Amino acid sequence: MPLVNNKVGNDCTVSADKALVDEKALVDSLIKVVACYRHLASCVGGCTDSLQLRDELRQTREKAQMLAVVIRDHLTSHLRNKRLPEVQRKEMEIHWVAFSSSLELLHVDMCKVFYIGDIFSSANTDTLVKTGIQGGGSEVAARALSLPDLNQAQSPTLPAGLESQERTTMEQEISQIDHMIDDMEMKVNVMRWMVEPHGPQYAEPLSSTDSASLALLSVDEEQPGHQPLCQRSQIFVLLLLFAVVLVAATLSICIVFFS
Amino acid sequence: MTIRNTLRDHGQRYRPRMACLKKTEKVLLEMQDPKTGVRSQPQRLVITTIPHAITGEDIIAWLADRFQVDTQEARTFGSMLVALGYIYPLQDHKRLVIKPDVSLYRFQTPYFWPTQQWPVEDTDYAIYLAKRNIRKKGILELHEQEHYNRLHKWMNHKWDFIVMQAKEQYRAAKERKKPDRVVFDCQERAYWVVHRPPPGTVSAMDYGLDRLTDPNSDEAKTPDFYERIMIFTQQSIMRPRVKSSVSIGALVKYCGTYNNHDPFLFKCLPSNPWLTDDVTYWNLNMPCVEIPTKMRVERWTFSFAELLSDPRGRDDFRLFLKKEFSGENLAFWEGCEDLKWGEAATIKEKAEHIYKTFLARGAPRWINIDGKTMEVTVKGLKHPHRYVLDPAQTHIYMLMKKDSYGRYQKSPVFKDTVKKAICPEEHNFSVAQLEQNAKKRRPSLSPIILRQMEKEQRAKMAANVDITQLCRFTTPIPHLAVYSGITDFPTATTSPSLTFLAHTPACPSPISVALDSTSASERRVEAGGGEGEGNPAARAPVCGNVSKSRMALSLRRLLKRGCTPATMFASLSPKCHSAAGTSSRIQPISPDQPSQPPPRRIGKLKWIFLQSAVSTP
């Protein structure tokens, strides 16, 4: 243990700094989980909807809620602490805003999943919408849960009776998030117009190669419409090339002939 | 900005119920059936294939078969499905229509279906734009760029979160397989084309204003709720009733008459602007167009109300009445309308003017209403309010309707209008031309400009005064000043409506005008002096002898007609008590005063002379 020769004030800031870093990590992971949840939610009702997907959704949801509870407790306690220095308070407020926005997104996603799950029960696969998705969301769920690989062996085969229980739990969780949101507003007064972000306006591209390949795919996506045109231009180029070759050949023959 | 504070917010935040969405969802589910649904095929891309693509013609055929309708209607229905966002096109993703050929479409995932419960959030749009920015390395379309900047300004406090969320969603997408990623991108893009349409297109999700109450929630059965129902039913009982045969008969007649004139139900010439984006129809039917269309003229024959409510029709009618020399009826009616719908501050003034011009004994444009109504009106005018002239107005309206309207329809004015009315040819736009038109769509003139145009129109009308009709917008005719020798006469007033000066229908003979140049100016001055209180800025004082004669004139009037209502003639009381004009040039107001039959029957010839004399500027 290094000699900690701190005054009380310093002690406070050091612990606050550490708390800040911790919270940032927590909020970032919540954002990540919410993003993954959204991807999974977009598959509900589509042709890849299955018990497995629902299970993955459930797990992701539970993780998100767990994170939310932890962050809420941290943030509430820190923001209600009057002796927090100004710089840290600003940082905390930014985290607060990010946290509340993530919760809102999560809330809407959960409501949508609940509602759509109602219409499309995974038992009746006839009416699942043919969306063109082929793979499942396992990799996304794995990312959300920070597991290297989601163990596919434990594919859940929930008996049908549990589905209604699942629905009620979901309802409860939705209302829980609801209350959490309301609670937060009551307890901590963060003036949103005072919060200044310090990120860039435009997100930088993450990795050039990856976006390039995706761009290629998307160009392909729009390609079929332009195919006739491309073919025509290709034929034109070929003809031109052929004409040039022909001219070169005749010239060479002339040279040979006259020399 | 804050989290849904629907409890604390008393504003209108609920989206109205869109019943079409529930119904469309049912149809969509039917389309998915592997046996009886729409046939799907894989879409081949360079690197991979993606299943579940459907062709436009398949969709249309399925819809036509399922609902037993013809292809055109199935096509419209299919376009609606695409416009609402349940199916999205794979090529040409910005045009949300169904093409009846092999162009490919795909079903939208239920997560991105339009819903009534959850409004489309700007936060999501910001995240989407940020993601798109990452993917396209900063090359966004112009309108997207504008939206992005605007959202950055308004949601600045969340921007860290938005950027982070966009990055995370992007990274999460990378975990998926490539074809799935492509499909998800297409889905999201299609979703935002529906809900944030690019400029120049309209969104099918436009629903108008937000509602105050949530249409999804059940209303609590409190005592207030029941009280409201009780009041409503009590009022329903008290409503006057009509036999259903009568009311239905009237409805049927109305529908039959107006059927061909309704652009919803019948084709409108040259083309329906809402369908073809070509505004010729509106231009041809502007309020003050020179030559009306045949359909418009036909509508004038349906009822008198139609004729009067159409400004062009009213102009035509006014012209006819002018020829018949009974323009004062219409002028009075218009004055009453102006009083009823005008500003409260000007009511008293307007009522005075109307009285002086139309109702008073000896008024320049006296209208013929029965004694009882006149009594009631004059009594009411002591304390004028908005509806004080209603009985008189109704009487005149019925008079015009029963008498002049019939004659108008047989008159040469109307026949001439009918002959000149145009019947535009129908447009036949090809698909390419329709697209062109859609691109050229522009917003219409702003209401401010329209109001200015109307004002100019009215000022122009005021300038084109016809002395024989002595319409209400009279300004003292400049060229009469030549006769009268008075140079400093005020010209057009600031407020053109109902600021009329003197004009006497019962004009003097043209000879008297020529000789007695002051008489006309006298009369003008008289009314001008009378109005002096009302329009202090407008009138300039005139020469002495004129005011002298004015005094004598008013005296004579008083003597002639005995007592008069207090307020009106108070203003006419002589202001300057100079010696009574003994000049012979003082003429009675007219030989044919309102105590006698209405002026229009007398002095026609005189007016014709006067008109010809006056019309030379």
From TrEMBL, chain A:
Keywords: Membrane, Signal transduction inhibitor, Transmembrane, Transmembrane helix. The chain crosses the membrane at residues 235-258. GO terms for biological process: negative regulation of signal transduction. It comes from the Eukaryota. PANTHER family: R-SEVEN BINDING PROTEIN (R7BP) HOMOLOG (PTHR21029). Belongs to the RGS7BP/RGS9BP family. This is Regulator of G-protein signaling 9-binding protein.
Automatic annotation (TrEMBL), chain B:
It comes from the Eukaryota. PROSITE patterns: DEP, RGS. Keywords: Membrane, Sensory transduction, Signal transduction inhibitor, Vision. Pfam families: DEP (PF00610), G-gamma (PF00631), RGS (PF00615), RGS_DHEX (PF18148). One of its GO terms (molecular function) is GTPase activator activity. GO terms for biological process: G protein-coupled receptor signaling pathway; intracellular signal transduction; negative regulation of signal transduction; regulation of G protein-coupled receptor signaling pathway; visual perception. Residues 518-541, 580-602 are annotated as: Disordered. Residues 303-418 form the RGS domain. Signal peptide: none annotated. InterPro entries: DEP_dom (IPR000591), G-protein_gamma-like_dom (IPR015898), GGL_sf (IPR036284), RGS (IPR016137), RGS6/7/9/11 (IPR047016), RGS6/7/9/11_DHEX_sf (IPR047017), RGS9_RGS (IPR047077), RGS_DHEX (IPR040759). Residues 34-109 form the DEP domain. This is Regulator of G-protein signaling 9. The gene is LOC115025026.
